Amino acid sequence: MDLYLIHWPRPMRDDYLTIWRAFAEIAESGRARAVGVSNFQPAQLERLLAETPLVPAVNQIELHPKFPQAELRGIHARHGIATEAWSPLGQGRGLLDDPVLARVGAKHGKSPAQVVLRWHLQLGNIVIPKSVTPSRIRENFDVLGFELDADDLAAVAGMDNGTRLGPDPDEFDIS
């Protein structure tokens, strides 16, 4: 297996450290090339890093312009953890209708989705947008031929309003 992730930390069960130690054994045995986490918050990551020698290869987190998670991305950067965005385009819940993205897109001759994907790439995020529409898939690939300048990045950064679209990892428990 290339990458194996703990999908939710479930802190109310206090078992993610035990699970992480099992993941370390999987990585050490060669059954997974890399192991990582998904939806881990700063406190959970700091605990893993303090109590085990293995650093997650990746933390897959909800991340989009309205919820950029700067603090968590900073922790990732300090520890060499790759940031992978889930819901990078805001789950189709109005993000791509934002006039800021339309304005930046018009400046570059790109769609709002392309602006968001380029923003992710320039921040260093791993981004895998979901689409089943062939034209949108082609459009999503066409994000390497332009670059957002400092004004564009500041405009997108100004969209941060702390809007989480998915469950809060500190409260979510999956059976």
Helix and strand element order = EHEHEHEHHEHH
User: Would you count the extended β strands for me?
Assistant: 5
Based on helices, strands and strand pairing, what is the structural class?
A: alpha/beta
Mean model confidence by pLDDT: 95
Net shape? elongated
Which radius of gyration do the C-alpha atoms yield?
A: 17 Å
Strand content: 5-15%
Q: Percentage of helical residues?
A: 40-55%
CATH-defined topology = TIM Barrel
The largest sheet is: 5 strands, parallel
Low-confidence stretches: none
Q: What's the number of structural domains?
A: 1
User: So how many helices?
Assistant: 7
CATH class: Alpha Beta
Distance between the termini: 24 Å
CATH architecture descriptor name: Alpha-Beta Barrel
CATH superfamily: NADP-dependent oxidoreductase domain
How is the largest sheet built, in terms of strand order?
A: 1-2-3-4-5
Topology:
Layout: E1 3-6, H1 16-29, E2 34-38, H2 42-51, E3 58-62, H3 70-79, E4 82-86, H4 99-108, H5 112-123, E5 126-127, H6 134-141, H7 150-157
Parallel strand pairs: 1-2, 2-3, 3-4, 4-5
Helix pairs in contact: 4-5
